[in-house]
């Protein structure tokens, strides 16, 4: 039987625990000798190396749609400090540090978030939509992923059937962050915008390169273990020559395993996982 956390036994301690974790969290970053991104540039760098978009509203959550509308409000606050941010050589991007003061003028609204392994509504819920988008952008660059945490459970299906699996990045200030480090001699720049039903992301660089990256899924499967259903999928990255459009190389970045918290379509093949 899984041992319960102290904040699950005594929920009133959670606000105190959050304050404690945030103090330790940012103190470690202050002393870890990394140079974190803080500089914005009003003009975009000359070369766009990847762009993407994601649908904002998800009607498959099982919750009132007002929480999806609140999520969009929260995302508008969080994208402002990230938009036009530069990641210069030897700098590290931290999601939590970048959006730390996003609500200094307006407070976040209640959105969906996983707390103590349960999907609930909390102020600032839904910011993982932005961290997911950023992680997807970063996978199409030579930036080094320093810290990334997958969701342990997928509570509802994505509204976009073409969205790749296993490329999410959950964040929780004080506990979980998304960090990438620039070990190249290039400068990168993030652009995030919200327009209509989509959030758009682009990443720019100051020097043109003769190749691009494409991230794809391989070997996707479902299996049951201890009465629960899981998805296993490999996330691979191809390096493609821009002129010839030929694949230069392909590497498995990682294999993601995630519990599925909703009913899969009828007829989906689900294997039995043996111990």
TrEMBL record:
PANTHER family, alphabetized: EXPORTED PROTEIN, EXPORTED PROTEIN-RELATED
Encoding gene per record: vanW
Classification via NCBIfam families: vanW-gen
Pfam families: VanW (PF04294)
Name of the molecule in the record: Glycopeptide resistance accessory protein VanW
């Amino acid at each position: 039987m899984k041992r319960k956390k102290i904040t699950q036994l005594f929920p009133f301690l959670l606000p105190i625990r959050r304050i404690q974790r945030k103090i330790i969290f940012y103190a470690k970053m202050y002393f870890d000798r990394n140079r974190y991104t803080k500089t914005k540039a009003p003009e975009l760098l000359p070369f766009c190396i990847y762009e993407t978009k994601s649908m904002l509203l998800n009607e498959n959550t099982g919750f009132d749609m007002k929480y999806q509308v609140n999520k969009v409000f929260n995302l508008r606050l969080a994208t402002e400090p990230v938009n036009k941010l530069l990641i210069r050589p030897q700098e590290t991007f931290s999601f939590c540090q970048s959006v730390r003061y996003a609500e200094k003028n307006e407070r976040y609204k209640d959105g969906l978030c996983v707390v103590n392994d349960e999907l609930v509504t909390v102020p600032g819920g839904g910011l993982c939509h932005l961290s997911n988008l950023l992680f997807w952008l970063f996978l199409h660059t030579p930036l080094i992923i320093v810290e990334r945490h997958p969701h342990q459970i997928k509570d509802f299906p994505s509204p976009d059937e073409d969205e790749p699996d296993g490329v999410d990045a959950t964040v929780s200030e004080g506990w979980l962050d998304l960090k990438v480090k620039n070990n190249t001699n290039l400068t990168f720049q993030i652009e995030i915008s919200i327009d209509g039903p989509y959030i758009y992301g682009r990443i720019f660089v100051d020097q043109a390169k003769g190749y691009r990256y494409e991230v794809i899924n391989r070997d996707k499967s479902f299996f049951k273990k201890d009465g629960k259903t899981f998805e296993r999928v490999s996330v691979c990255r191809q390096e493609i020559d821009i002129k010839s459009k030929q694949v230069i190389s392909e590497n498995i970045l990682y294999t993601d395993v995630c519990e599925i918290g909703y009913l899969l379509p009828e007829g989906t093949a689900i294997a039995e996982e043996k111990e």
